[in-house]
Amino acid sequence: MAVLSLIAISSRQPLDGQERRRYIELPIGLWTKSSGEPTEIRDILTVNTDQFNNQLLLDSLTTFDAERIPERVVHAKGTGAFGYFIVTNDVSKYTYADLFNGIGKKTPLNVRFSTSVQNLGGNDLGRELKGMAVKFYTKQGNLDLLCLQTPVYLYRDPVLFQHQVHAVKRNPQTGLFNNRWDFVVYRPIQTHALFWTLADYGVPDGYRKMDSFPIHTYELANKHGETHYVRFNFRTEQGFSAITRAQAAQIQDPDYFNRDLFNAIGSGNYPAWRLEMDVMTAHDIQTVDYDPFDVTRLWKNGTFTTVEIGRLILNKNVENQFRDVELGAYNPANLVPGIPGPVDFLFRGRRSFYRDTQNYRIGTNHNKVLVNMPLYAKTYNRDGKPPVLLNMRNAPNYYPNSYSGPIPYVDEKRPKKKLQVLESNAVDLQPVSYFYNHVLESEAHRQRFIENLVASLEPVTPPTLQKVIKLMYLIDPDLGRRVAIGLEVAYAQRAAEQAAAQAAAQAARLRNTTIRNVPTAESDCKN
Ligand code: HEM
């Protein structure tokens, strides 16, 4: 029998040996059952054998039956890669977070890219929010920045989440995607973020070519306990570029984004993003004439400064999609000392949703899965569904204790006060109007945006359509007018296409066609 040599592989060593991860892998060699028993050649075919006594058959089929875990409730389709972050600028004045301090310091990381509405196996080219979830494995724990390609979000109140997601996901009866506009007209706060996706930003030319934003205003603390308020921006070093509707229709590759990323990294063409932050002081945020914590709007030019932090580089493809991507659990509440984080109400909601959904999707021990595992962790959490790894061995499972269990530390730098913000429920269309008139920087871009908008409205029923057009006029009379005209043109075109299709079908009926049944017995086959 061949020698079974075992190799211990540990990619990121924890600081402490007690919880050291061991990934025991066999070199390519003997095929075994999951119990480790080597597979005998006569067990690999089972016809005319005693199948119930074939442990290989039982082991493989019953494991296969349970291969799937629930797909993510949103952002189900995606891919990922590994890389590192390198600090290029001294930002100690703003934060004492270890990973951002020390020019040249490198921190390993993992990124998962995703498209938000599609199910697993869906189309990368869907015009929708795209995700870039970054997990930095820092010495002070994991820092997760969950970003979208739009610098604004749909709403401020987390109570809208369930409804907004249902409105863009599948209809309970038909199983087809709902048309979101019926919901948008009742909750027009979404219009701003929606407009970003209807513009060129909605379908970038692959994940490598998009900027990405955690959106929320993050509180940062420096070593003197002073706070600053920042919006992080990941700026693509590949240059932003987009795919138009016509190009997307031609590409016809549902995995276009995943393929592009894998091929680029595989060929050594490592994608990179520059991380910078827009900064306001604690004084600034109280004096600006808008709400800087409002995730549905941009900060106004002239009210902040932009500071570079470093670069994110992806230089390693994942080895195993399920282990490294599907089991990824990114949680915006995973923060580190020096980054107390956002203070708005949407974020408060998000603090609990992610853990909850990941407990359901992966299990309560999801942070013990390789891709999620911090460099160091000692907790009083115990047991639950596997993986439990060493389960903290024989360490005490309650605190305080007399048996050298893990203890908390004192952070003298932590800010003494926590900022409380109150937010408005009002719908403000000014940022949307600004988007239409200024963020869309050229007439050509505005025209592409209108065409995408009109295309999304074509299936909408008349009562809803009237409300949409009213909303467009409220945002900007020029927008309302162009959408109304665009729809008339689109309807006329569709009517002409339908007439042509009917004529073609009629002509086909008149032709003599032979209909043959699919043979189900050999005698039916004539040749
Ligand atoms: C009320 C607001 C929000 C709720 C309730 C929410 C909830 C969720 C949930 C349940 C998931 C699936 C997580 C999983 O199964 O692992 C998810 C994924 C994600 N969310 Fe949110 N989300 C919200 C807002 C946002 C915002 C504001 C951003 C970004 C600025 C964002 C970015 C993402 C990204 C990038 C993912 C994909 C993570 C991955 O790749 O696994 N979400 N969100």
UniProtKB/TrEMBL annotation:
It comes from the Eukaryota. InterPro entries: Catalase, Catalase_clade1/3, Catalase_core, Catalase_immune_responsive, Catalase_sf. One of its GO terms (molecular function) is heme binding. Heme binds at Y354. Its cofactor is heme. Transmembrane segments: none annotated. Residues 32-407 form the Catalase core domain. Coiled coil: none annotated. GO terms for biological process: hydrogen peroxide catabolic process; response to hydrogen peroxide. The keyword Nucleotide-binding does not apply. Belongs to the catalase family. This is Catalase core domain-containing protein. It comes from Chrysodeixis includens.
